[in-house]
Amino acid sequence: MSDDHRNYAAARGQLIAYLKTQGYRPHPDEVFCPSGEHCWVDVAALKGQDYWAFEYKSRNDSMRRGFDQCRSYARGFNYVVLVADRHRVTSSPYFPYFRAEGFGIWRHDRLGFHPILEPRRRNNTRNVKLVVERQFRHVRNLKEPCVTLLSRWFEPSGRSQRSDALRICLGARGDFFG
Fold it and tell me: Domain limits at 75?
C-alpha cells in the first residue's frame, strides 16, 4: 500500500498491533527487500525463526500489483501474506494465483483480521534473505527492558564499564534501535 493513502498509517498500526497479539515481533519500519521492482514491505515480522512479509492493499489498490509484490518478497521471506481491505477478495481473478504460489491472504475489516488462505513456508534466495535478517538484528524487542546491573556502573575500572553497559543498552549508534 502506498504511504500516500490517507488510511495507511492507521491500517499499518492496526496490523502491527494485531501481529503482536499473535506472537509476532514486527519491525517498526517498512523493510527493504532487494528483490526487484517491489522492494519495500509494508509490515515485516519475525515469528520464531521465520520471517513474514505482509503487504496491505486497500479497496482501491490493484490485486495484480499485490500479487507482483508478493512474488518479489518471496525471495527474502519465509511466509508472504497479502492483507486486503476488501470483502470480496476471493472473487478477484488473481485469487487462484495467490493459492498456487502459496501466498496467504487475510481480510481486514472493522472487526479485525481474518485469514482466508494460509501461506506455505517458502525457500528463499540466500543473499536477499541476509539483507532482511540484517535489518531485524538491529531492532530491540521493546517489550524486553534493557537491564544492566547497577553494580556494573560502579566497577573500579570506571568509565569503560559504564560505556560498555550504555552501548549494550542503547546500541552502537546511541539509540534504542542500534
Answer: 8-137
- Helix ranges, the chain (H): 8-21, 63-73, 95-101, 126-137, 150-153, 159-170
Q: According to the model, what pLDDT value does residue 142 have?
A: 39
- Prediction pTM value: 0.75
Compute CA distances 9 → 2, 5, 16, 169, whole Å: 10, 8, 10, 29
Amino acid letter, 62: S
**Has residue 2 been placed in a domain?**
no
- Identify the CA nearest to 34 among candidates 103, 131, 162, 165: 131
Question: Is the per-residue pLDDT at 174 higher than 50?
Answer: no
What is the CATH classification number for the domain harbouring 104?
A: 3.40.1350.10
Q: Kindly state the average pLDDT of the residues 24-39.
A: 88
Number of domains in the chain: 2
Together in a domain, 37 and 125:
yes
- Residue in 30, 65, 49 with CA at minimum distance from that of residue 124: 49
